[in-house]
Design goal:
Chain lengths: 336, 264
């Protein structure tokens, strides 16, 4: 486009927005309602369970929140381009075993981690190629992967847990220290937020999910976008599994699984990402994950049992979806 | 089918910008194009008319690199080219307003206007320059005289004509040397259509841009185009300089072709 100095331009500039207008816009953002819910929940549990805002409990909370949030970062990208990965919890379990094998084969810890992440990225690549080029819906592709990877993990581990290699500072950074995994989650949220809102990749992901034909007509390689987001999701899943391995000190071959995957998807959906594609927010996924964590942790402190927890989570997801759909009607602007 | 060619092929004026020969395109068992040729020169405007389903949009999408032809050759500025991606065609200066407008409803106006040619901030991280895109989008819209209150607005919130104006503004403000327009006035009000036509004529007057426009309004097409081409059932059935034909003659040819097709 050419640079123009058109006098008509001054008239086309949007008028300066008042503070009230800005606040309204903020309040209508998909993240805002779930943030409000998070604040209310914190106040509620602080008042009813007297040891909610203690260091020990916040650490527990942060550890519960970290994994769903990291997985949500990938799933949100996929949901935006109208795909999903049901197998990310399986990659989560597989990665620490690849890392252990590579370490035992003589690689240093960091090298072993990189090797594991490469394997995870390959899993994402295979999922993407099957989905995009063989036209298998990702729901089905990753359902197949779900069982396939479970079998691989059980086979290479022979069903036994693996000890996490390494020690000292590296170990603390990678999850040994109480808040390490949560800080990783925050860092990855920041990174993926920038990718989604401030890079061509993010914009093209939204375009692909919003109108695939239009995106292709504009010259966007939608196959590449989808495959890339499968790779991102699997790699994040594997990295998350490795962080958990460092926090706990060992890995069970049945770690992760559908439970952690659905918590990741639920975090994204509660945070305001539309399952229909074309829109989503990483920050919302963070807050969604925190809400799920607060619910789990708060009700545990109150002594509510695990069955009840599932009922509450189910209700929370339904309410969040209804709220998001209703609020979307009042949003016409796409704030940047 | 072989159509009787009423006149010798009218030659385009000026240096040739785009030429296609023997373009064939099949979708499964449907032959959308059965050996179509066309050419357009810089500074010239070619109108393509024809029934629904004649293959007009398919031809255009082959010229933008969106579809790959099953046979045929394409020359851009005299050079043989394989337009295997939209990016390739764009790099050669080919821009298009698609019939479906190619807009993403959930994205803002300015994101749509810069879709896949985003402006980036300087620096190693290749971050989007939202501010620059917003400002240039406002410039472009003001320039074509479209009434859009705010470029942050989601495209899905706009009227059909406004959406069309955005698609036109996007193609026109891209420094295209070959501009392909698939029914660019279909949803426009009379005033806005007049503005777009004035804009197209200004571009034509620059002399270095070749324009191809698909339309359904014979009189309007003959008024703004230098040459017209009639397409029916995947073939070109008639070509003429705009000054040498009339809406009535074109309509008569269309009717005759239609009868022949039904009869034979
Ligand atoms: N992507 C596609 N897949 C299958 N068939 C297609 C596809 N695109 C076009 N066709 C077929 O090709 C033929 C020509 O379609 P095309 O869109 O080029 O017509 P058109 O001349 O632009 O018509 P209109 O005036 O209605 O826009 C039609 O029979 C159509 O069904
Ligand atoms: Mg058409």
């Amino acid at each position: 486009m050419q640079q123009r100095n058109d006098p008509a331009r001054a008239g086309a500039l949007p008028p300066r927005r008042s503070v009230a207008a800005r606040l309204t816009e903020l309040a209508l953002r998909p993240e805002a309602s779930v943030f409000f819910v998070a604040v209310v929940l914190v106040i509620y549990f602080e008042l009813t369970a007297n040891n909610f805002l203690t260091d020990a409990n916040l650490q527990t909370l942060s550890q519960f929140v970290a994994a769903p949030v990291i997985l949500a970062c990938g799933e949100i990208m996929l949901l935006i381009c109208r795909e999903i990965d049901l197998s990310v919890g399986q990659v989560f379990a597989l990665a620490p075993f690849i890392m252990e094998k590579a370490y035992n084969a003589g690689l240093p810890v960091v090298g072993a981690i990189v090797a594991a992440l490469i394997v995870c990225a390959m899993v994402g690549l295979v999922i993407g190629l099957i989905t995009v080029h063989l036209n298998v819906p990702s729901f089905i592709t990753t359902l197949g992967m779900f069982f396939l990877i479970t079998g691989i993990t059980l086979t290479i581990s022979r069903g036994f847990p693996a000890d996490t290699p390494g020690n000292g500072l590296l170990n603390a950074i990678l999850g040994g220290w109480g808040y390490a995994e949560f800080l990783w989650a925050l860092a990855l949220v920041a990174l993926m937020h920038v990718v989604l809102r401030h890079t061509r990749w993010g914009l093209h992901t939204i375009a692909t999910g919003g109108n695939a034909i239009a995106a292709a007509e504009a010259g966007i390689n939608i196959d590449r976008i989808k495959i890339g987001n499968f790779i991102i999701t699997s790699t994040l899943g594997g990295f998350c599994g490795i962080l958990e391995a460092f926090r706990i000190g060992s890995t069970d071959p049945l770690a992760g699984g559908s439970n952690i995957m659905f918590l990741g998807v639920a975090s994204g959906v509660i945070g305001g990402t539309a399952i229909a594609g074309g829109a989503g927010t990483i920050i919302g996924g963070l807050i969604g994950g925190i809400v799920l964590g607060i619910l789990q942790d708060g009700f545990t402190l109150q002594g509510i049992n695990a069955f009840m927890f599932d009922i509450i989570i189910g209700g929370a997801i339904l309410l969040a979806m209804i709220a998001n759909i209703q609020l979307a009607r009042h949003r016409g602007m796409r704030p940047q | 089918m072989t159509a009787p060619q009423a006149q010798p092929q009218p030659q385009p004026r000026g240096p040739e910008a785009l030429r296609a020969e023997g373009i064939v395109k099949r979708f499964g068992s449907v032959e959308a194009l059965g050996g179509v040729g066309m050419q357009v020169a810089a500074g010239e405007m070619l109108g393509i008319l024809g029934d629904n389903g004649a293959g007009k949009s398919t031809l255009l999408k082959i010229l933008t690199g969106f579809h790959q032809p099953d046979a045929g050759t394409i020359y851009v500025h005299g050079q043989h080219q394989t337009l295997n991606t939209v990016d390739r065609a764009r790099a050669l200066g080919i821009e298009c307003v698609y019939q479906d407008l190619a807009l993403v409803n959930g994205l803002s106006i300015y994101h749509n206007m810069f879709l896949n040619r985003e402006l980036l901030k300087p620096g190693p991280f290749r971050l989007l320059d939202h501010r620059a895109m917003r400002e240039r989008a406002m410039d472009a819209l003001a320039d074509i005289g479209v009434n859009i209150p705010n470029v942050n607005l989601e495209v899905g919130r706009l009227s059909g004509g406004q959406r069309q104006a955005i698609a036109v503004a996007r193609a026109v403000h891209s420094d295209a040397k070959i501009l392909l327009l698939d029914e660019p006035l279909a949803a426009m009000g009379a005033r806005e259509a007049g503005q777009i036509i004035a804009l197209i004529e200004r571009l034509k007057a620059r002399g270095d841009i070749a324009i191809v426009m698909i339309a359904h309004n014979y009189a309007q097409t003959l008024e703004v185009c230098d040459r017209v081409m009639l397409m029916q059932h995947g073939s070109v059935t008639y070509e003429s300089h705009a000054a040498e034909t009339s809406p009535a003659e074109l309509l008569e040819i269309v009717r005759r072709e239609y009868r022949e097709m039904r009869g034979g």
